[in-house]
Design brief:
Blueprint lengths: L1 H27 L4 H36 L3 H31 L3 H29 L2
């Protein structure tokens, strides 16, 4: 059951990351500038209810797996999950704060897309590793 939960959480993070990258963040450039601040506030308030619990859940399930079985693979998972938090905290969150403060800025949105691509690639690696580790 534990492996199913890990796979589910990793799959959700993987899918959400790519949906954000392919659909949501590019839309930030398409929003009319007069509506951008309202849309960005609306979006960030709602997406947090999905991203926050998923990222916390991923830390917990991989943290428990690491405590339970301190093998090399668990340390790799811990490093990759930690990397998603570093990219989020040091890159994505400050860019969202800048967009909230200063409004629509294509340069910041492009930087946000690059940061999210990094996260999406890390979550892809986590998903691939999760499939090879936990898939029956």
């Amino acid at each position: 059951m534990e492996s199913v939960l890990i796979l589910l959480i990793d799959a959700c993070c993987f899918l959400l990351a790519w949906m954000v990258h392919i659909i949501i963040y590019p839309t930030l450039k398409q929003i009319d500038s007069s509506r951008f601040n309202a849309y960005h506030a609306w979006y960030t308030n709602r997406i947090t209810w999905f991203v926050g619990p998923l990222m916390i859940s991923q830390v917990l399930v991989h943290g428990f797996a690491l405590i339970e079985n301190q093998g090399a693979i668990e340390f790799v998972f811990a490093g990759l999950v930690g990397l998603t938090w570093v990219i989020t905290g040091l890159r994505a969150v400050p860019m969202h704060a800048k967009l909230s403060r200063d409004g629509q800025d294509d340069t910041v949105i492009s930087s946000l897309l690059r940061a999210n691509l990094q996260r999406s690639l890390v979550w892809t690696a986590i998903m691939a590793l999760s499939l090879t580790t936990y898939w029956p």
